[in-house]
């Protein structure tokens, strides 16, 4: 196949992906759901679940196997960019002692309970879902991470849209979610190393490598960027500063992938380590955000959808476990978050509103599902279940949040 033929095939696939995500995303927004919900659904619709079933010949022509590696590369570069944006938008000034104490208690409960449910999933459904026969410990940690993760970017957007991101409750939600997600990413990295490594050497390399990487970012890269930014007269027009950030972003993605933490962790940590110079952060975000949200993320959703066949879940013996695992996913976040906030003295309204929003997994769940497939931790059935969790928990977030506003303080 010639380069021109490859270009045409990839271009056709991209055109269909962008069109579907724009249309379905717009419809989601019309019914008061975040656009990302529609894009997630569009990704599944483009896969074998709907498009592949209704138009199998056309599906093969539009999404041939030759195109998949190119979509994979675009999607993963985009994810690193996106997680960089997520990290850079975390307001570190929220991390005061009182808020950290409350967030620590809430995060601990919201991290512990999902792993209990992950263990229960292994006990009840291990034979059906753990077809890759990874260890009980690894499967429990993987499922616990899938239950524990929070759709941090969507949470931030909802808090912004409802003008509560700068309130005590908004700050508590942001800090708690960031603590949970950082720990979850590290645990997921541990699972991948445990599953693919043949000795404890790789585990030690990941742990110590991650520590060195984070310290290097905060104590070497951050001061360098601060000095560099201070020398930059106009960050909106200086391409040199922007190119340095993109270079560092790609290097961080490569390093963390090598360590077994997956490339998105590198993007997230670089964003977290960025100097909080507002004009520079905004200049970089404006350049990265548009292309990431309009092109990269829809490609990731489509790539995830192309690997998802929801019809698998209708086969005998799987539908029951799928429903129970969905219940596990809801219970593992809503119950501990609501309970721990009530114990810390928060009202029913505030407790249930935060529990509802932090229950959403969104894009983060899809990333975990793709990591699981990439490293051979899960099969197509469990992959489809995780996609279902991502969609159902995200779709329910706003309705449950609106329901919480009817509670009395």
From TrEMBL:
Alphabetical keyword list:
Ion transport, Membrane, Transmembrane, Transmembrane helix, Transport
For this record, the Gene Ontology CC terms, alphabetical, are: membrane
Q: Which Gene3D superfamilies match?
A: 1.20.1530.20
Q: Which residues form the Cation/H+ exchanger transmembrane domain?
A: 23-395
TM spans (from-to): 7-28, 40-60, 67-85, 105-125, 137-159, 171-196, 203-221, 241-274, 286-306, 318-339, 351-375, 381-401
Question: InterPro entries recorded for this chain?
Answer: Cation/H_exchanger_TM (IPR006153), CPA2_transporter (IPR050794), Na+/solute_symporter_sf (IPR038770)
Instruction: Name the Pfam families for this protein.
Output: Na_H_Exchanger
Example of a GO MF term: antiporter activity
Question: Cellular location of this protein?
Answer: Membrane
What's the main place this protein lives? membrane
Q: What is the topology of this protein in the membrane according to its UniProt annotation?
A: Multi-pass membrane protein
Give the superkingdom in one word: Bacteria
What is an annotated GO biological process for this record, any one? proton transmembrane transport
Instruction: Name the chain's protein.
Output: Cation/H+ exchanger transmembrane domain-containing protein
Where does this protein come from, organism-wise?
Planktosalinus lacus
- In the record, what lineage is assigned to the organism producing the protein? Bacteria, Pseudomonadati, Bacteroidota, Flavobacteriia, Flavobacteriales
């Amino acid at each position: 196949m010639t380069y021109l033929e490859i270009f045409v095939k990839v271009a056709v696939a991209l055109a269909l992906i962008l069109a579907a995500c724009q249309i379905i995303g717009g419809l989601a927004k019309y019914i008061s759901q975040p656009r990302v919900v529609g894009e997630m659904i569009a990704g599944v619709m483009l896969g074998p679940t709907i498009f592949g079933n209704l138009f199998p010949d056309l599906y093969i022509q539009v999404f041939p196997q030759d195109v998949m590696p190119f979509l994979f590369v675009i999607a993963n570069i985009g994810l690193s960019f996106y997680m960089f944006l997520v990290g850079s938008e975390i307001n570190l000034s929220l991390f005061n002692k009182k808020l950290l104490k409350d967030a620590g208690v809430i995060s601990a409960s919201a991290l512990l309970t999902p792993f209990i449910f992950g263990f229960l999933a292994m006990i009840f459904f291990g034979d059906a879902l753990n077809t890759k026969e990874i260890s009980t410990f690894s499967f429990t940690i993987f499922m616990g991470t899938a239950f524990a993760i929070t759709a941090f970017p969507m949470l931030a957007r909802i808090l912004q849209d409802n003008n509560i991101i700068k309130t005590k409750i908004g700050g508590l939600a942001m800090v708690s979610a960031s603590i949970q997600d950082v720990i979850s990413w590290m645990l997921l990295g541990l699972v991948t190393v445990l599953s693919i490594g043949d000795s404890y050497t790789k585990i030690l390399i990941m742990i110590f490598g991650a520590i060195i990487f984070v310290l290097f970012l905060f104590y070497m890269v951050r001061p360098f960027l601060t000095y560099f930014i201070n020398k930059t007269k106009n960050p909106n027009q200086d391409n040199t500063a922007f190119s340095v950030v993109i270079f560092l972003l790609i290097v961080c993605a490569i390093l963390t992938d090598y360590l077994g933490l997956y490339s998105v962790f590198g993007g997230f940590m670089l964003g977290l380590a960025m100097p909080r110079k507002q004009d520079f952060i905004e200049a970089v975000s404006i350049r990265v955000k548009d292309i990431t949200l309009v092109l990269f993320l829809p490609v990731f959703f489509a790539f995830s959808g192309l690997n998802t066949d929801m019809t698998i879940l209708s086969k005998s013996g799987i539908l029951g476990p799928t429903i129970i695992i969905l219940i596990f996913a809801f219970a593992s976040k809503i119950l501990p978050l609501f309970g721990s906030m009530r114990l810390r003295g928060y009202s029913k309204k505030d407790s249930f509103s935060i529990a509802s929003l932090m229950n959403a997994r969104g894009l983060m769940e899809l990333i975990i599902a793709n990591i699981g497939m990439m490293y051979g931790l899960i099969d197509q059935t469990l992959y489809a279940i995780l996609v279902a969790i991502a969609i159902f928990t995200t779709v329910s977030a706003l309705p449950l949040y609106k329901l919480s506003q009817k509670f009395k303080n």
